[in-house]
Amino acid sequence: MPDNNDSNKKYNKVDSYILNEGHTVDKNKLIDEMSKHDSLDMRHLRANGLYQPSDMQYETNFYRTRRIDPYYQVEGGTEYLFFTKPDLNLLQGQELVKNLYKTSSIYGKSITSVDSGPGTVPYFQDLMLNNYKNTFTDLCKSSGSESDSCPFIRILSNRKVSNMDVPDIVTNEIETAQNMFGTRIFYPTSSMKSDEDVEFSIEFEDTQYLEIYHLFKVYDTYRQMKYLGLTAPKEDYIRFKILHDHISIYKFIVDTDGETLLYYAKATGVYPKTISRSAFSEIQDKGGLKITVSFKLSGWFEDMEPNIIIDFNQLVASWIKNVKEVPLWDRELQAVSGENVKYFYIAKRSVENKGIVSDKKVRYMLKAGQ
Questions:
Q1: Confidence (pTM)
Q2: Which residue range(s) make up the domain with 141?
Q3: Which residues touch 132 (CB under 8 Å, ≥6 apart)?
Q4: Residue 338 lies in a domain
Q5: Quick check: is 253 in a domain?
Q6: How many domains does the chain have?
Q7: Beta carbons within 10 angstroms of residue 89's beta carbon
């Protein structure tokens, strides 16, 4: 029988690898051989479906067979939605707006009507008395204080539990008349209609104070009053034809690293169309109270446009003067931070080395600040 000590000496060589009995290969030589793209070892790996990042040349070469790409594939993502505040004419300072309308009769006499406006609505008065002022400030952008002039409705971003649907791009066509052989030709025209007249639904988990339901109900009640002539937008909005009761929704999808933007879009000119009051028909014992709101796009939808990033950062800059990043990774805990943040902003990341895989494109990142 062979001596155990001899066996240990044979297999504990640091600078060589034993391929079979009596045959060794120098470690440095093997590493050098493996690093060569056209070496026999690398060809063996590729023949068995194992590729390095440098082999994934999908822009400059064709694949003979389909490859599993663990380096550049999308493994998942997280959606962030940011809802801009409308500017409903609900508050004047810290109080509800009261309007005193005057009309003229056919005899030229001035007739003064009774008080009207949001300040005369019992539902609004009750909410204000019961400390729901945030519901009104979230719907009145111009009424925000200097200390908190956030342009976004935070509760909607934090309490949404479903994703925002994105409309497909569909190209319209023009069809010619048939010729003598019954053949027709189709000409593509434009896909602009894909970005208009869109409806989508978002589900929110409400609180025990029904803050989300009250927010959308106040929104709807104000529109009813405006339609009936019981209140009116601010004078500048009438003069310049600004849709003060429409909002924009920013949609960002970040990669699994929690920051890199995979996709970004913006829906401009949105208003809530349907509020699921039927959620109160029966409240389940478990799972929370879900309020589904369908939104109608009266403006347009756009995605991956640079002006989306510019618009979002300008909104943040109008509120935050000095941006200070809060790292996603807590070095002391050695874990992803679970702390609250005050705001988000978009920053550009240049091409850099990410360890095994290097970035091939310049991409944007969703950063947080405090």
A1: 0.85
A2: 78-369
A3: 209, 211, 214
A4: yes
A5: yes
A6: 1
A7: 24
H or E segment to which residue 302 belongs: strand 290-303
Contacts of 64 (CB under 8 A, 6+ apart): none
What is the phi/psi pair of residue 304, to 5°? 60, 25
DSSP for 11-64, please give it.
HT-SSEEEEETTEEEEHHHHHHHHH-TTSHHHHHHHHTT---GGG--TTTS--S
Residue 362 belongs to some domain of the structure: yes
Which H or E run includes 274? strand 261-275
Taking every pair of Cα atoms in the chain, the longest distance, rounded to a whole number of angstroms, is 127
pLDDT per residue over 271-327, tens digit each? 999 999 999 998 888 889 999 999 999 999 999 999 999 999 999 999 998 989 999
Q: Which two tokens stand for residue 129?
A: 């008395």
| Cβ atoms of 258 and 328 closer than 8 Å | yes
Q: Hey, what amino acid is at 339?
A: E
Categorize the per-residue pLDDT at 16 as very low, low, confident or very high, splitting at 50, 70 and 90: low
Distances (CA, A) of 148 to 134, 137, 238, 340: 11, 10, 27, 16
- Beta-bridge partner residues of 260: 365
Q: What's CA 83's distance to the chain center, in Å?
A: 10
18 domain-assigned: no
137-162 core/surface letters (b: 16 or more CB in 10 A; e: else)? bbbbbebbeeeeebbbbebbeebbee
Q: Give 240-246 contacts, CB < 8 A, sequence gap 24+.
A: 243/269, 243/298, 244/86, 244/87, 244/88, 244/89, 245/86, 245/88, 245/219, 245/271, 246/86, 246/270, 246/271, 246/298, 246/299
Q: What does the DSSP assignment read for 103-161?
A: EE-TTS-EEEEEEESGGG-HHHHHHHHTT-HHHHHTTBGGG--TT---SB-HHHHHHB-
Question: Residues 218, 139: contact at Cβ < 8 Å?
Answer: yes
221-276 pLDDT, tens per residue? 999 999 998 898 998 999 999 999 999 999 999 999 999 999 999 999 999 999 99
Q: 208 pLDDT band (50/70/90 cuts)? A: very high
CA pair distance 163, 203, nearest whole angstrom: 8
